[in-house]
Amino acid sequence: MIWLTIMAMAALVFGSRYLFLEPKLPVRLSKNTLAFLSYSAPAVLTAIFAPIVFVREGQLDLSVDNSYLICAVVAALLAYTTRNVLLTTVVSMGLFFTIH
Fold it and tell me: Would the pTM count as exceeding 0.90?
């Protein structure tokens, strides 16, 4: 049963990706749908990082000794000013390993 579930999920993910990535298929999305989908990546990333950065031991932690929050702020500022993904990643991870 587990293998059947894994294979079904793999087929579902592959099928949904293939429909939009294969240029020969006549699937075109409207401008409204594309505009709506443009918000999905920031929403998913926010849902992933917000609990990690802002919550510690089940409580909201906005203190100065929260190393996740400090590094997230540094990473956001670096990403905004430099627009360099590699630099942002290396500097923020280096800072995190230094202060954590």
Answer: no
